[in-house]
Specification:
This protein is of the alpha/beta class. The chain folds into 2 domains: 153 residues, Aspartate Aminotransferase, domain 1, CATH 3.90.1150; 254 residues, Type I PLP-dependent aspartate aminotransferase-like (Major domain) (Aspartate Aminotransferase, domain 2). 39% of the residues lie in helices and 16% in strands.
């Protein structure tokens, strides 16, 4: 569909400009299936968002008509594949408002993007006694790579503590910025609690000290407008599967001056200009960081997903998800024995909770039998669980395709859980 077509004419919004989730749902084939004989209520988009038909078709069309290796062939298919792959890079650049496609590196996902920086930057910049500053809210992907980098250099990982609501306060963050801090790595949005961190202000405090900042944007990219120039971060990482795209594809945005100063982190084909037994010379940005055959179909699918999100409108998606968040939060507060975990004033569409006397895995299992898909466990954020004195929570998360009916399904299924354990 032409993205320039008025949304009202396309039928995606109502007369007030609000997103029509029923129309959006029609674009997601998987939402029409049943689980255990019941219609699927998918409330696990924070783990992996579902893919619209536009993405599925783009990947299929690439595989059926254009598949070949990129950058290396003069034949028609190779030229078409290269155009699609590099066109996807431009789509990403535009989506996050990077200055140049030289600043867009394709990776397997957020985890690989952070590892790239931790190894390439950490391997050349960290020294014994230095500190890398993270927060207590981080996903393991923004903790473990820095632990490894610190261990190699003899440096130390420091975490900003949370308050009772699951927020990172600016005063606490500023207090942790010490004379030995060399880099700040922080989540834009917590995957475990939905807390939206005040990243722009945090980046400003770090930049005032001349510190580079990496932002884990996995949970933000699908739910709000991300402008890397306005944020003024040095690095921004996200995954395709969080933003309605395929798995196995992600992005590292890096400020061009930062990327140019870093050594390659993997060696092989496509990241080189010349190779001799004695030495090699490396390719220009961004290909210096893209060794080997890339996930071409994944990049094509990611571009289609970003176009789809732009078509719906990021502000409309955010407003719709905030409505669902507030509605669900108010109703879950009325459930006997239920405790909300993480009550930040600024949250994305994620709700973590516990039920008194019932393990989250049991909650998730019974909900699945009712056709309701949520996530249970520590959510790859064990320091958050430790902070709250928990081993796990149940987590419901929203996407553009969720409706109030999904919330009602969740509430009814929770009643069933309580009946089973009565």
């Amino acid at each position: 569909m032409n993205a320039a077509l008025p949304l009202a004419a396309a039928g995606y919004v109502d007369a007030q400009g609000r997103l029509l989730p029923a129309r959006v749902r029609a674009d997601f084939p998987i939402l029409g299936r049943e689980v255990h004989g019941r219609p699927l209520a998918y409330l696990d988009s924070a783990a992996s968002a579902q893919q619209p038909r536009a993405v599925l078709d783009a990947v299929t069309r690439y595989g059926e008509l254009h598949h070949a290796n990129v950058h290396r062939g003069v034949h028609t298919l190779s030229q078409e594949a290269t155009a699609a792959f590099e066109g996807a890079r431009e789509t990403v650049r535009r989506f996050i408002n990077a200055r140049s496609t030289r600043e867009i590196v394709f990776t397997r996902g957020t985890t690989e993007a952070i590892n790239l920086v931790a190894q390439a930057w950490g391997g050349t910049q960290l020294r014994a006694g230095d500190e890398v500053l993270v927060t207590q809210l981080e996903h393991h992907a923004n903790i473990v790579p820095w632990q490894m980098a610190c261990e190699r250099a003899g440096a130390r990982l420091v975490a900003v503590p949370l308050n009772a609501a699951g927020e990172v306060e600016l005063d606490a963050f500023a207090a942790c910025l010490g004379p030995r801090t060399r880099l700040v790595a922080l989540a834009h949005v917590s995957n475990a609690l939905g807390t939206v961190l005040p990243v722009k202000a945090m980046i400003g405090l770090a930049r005032a000290r001349g510190l580079p900042v990496l932002v884990d944007g996995a949970q933000a990219i699908a739910h709000q407008r991300v402008d890397v120039q306005a944020l003024d971060c040095d690095f921004y990482a996200f995954s395709g599967h969080k933003v309605y795209g395929p798995t196995g594809i992600g992005v590292l945005y890096g400020r061009e001056q930062q990327l140019a100063a870093l050594p390659p982190w993997q060696g092989g084909g496509d990241m080189i200009l010349t190779v001799a037994i004695e030495r090699s010379t490396y390719n220009e940005l961004p290909w210096k960081f893209e060794a080997g055959t890339p996930n071409i179909s994944g990049a094509v699918g990611l571009a289609a997903a970003l176009d789809y999100v732009e078509m719906l409108g990021r502000e409309r998606i955010a407003a719709h998800e905030q409505h669902l968040l507030h509605t669900a939060t108010a109703q879950l507060r009325e459930v006997a024995g239920l405790t909300l975990v993480g009550t930040a004033a600024d949250k994305a569409g994620v709700i973590s909770f516990t039920l008194k006397g019932i393990h989250p895995h049991d909650i998730g299992t019974i909900l699945d039998r009712e056709g309701v898909a949520i996530r249970t466990g520590h959510h790859c954020a064990m320091p958050v669980m430790t902070w709250y004195g928990l081993s796990a929570t149940a987590r419901a998360s929203f996407g553009c395709y969720n409706t109030e009916a999904d919330i009602e399904r969740l509430l009814v299924a929770l009643d069933r859980v309580r009946e089973v354990f009565a």
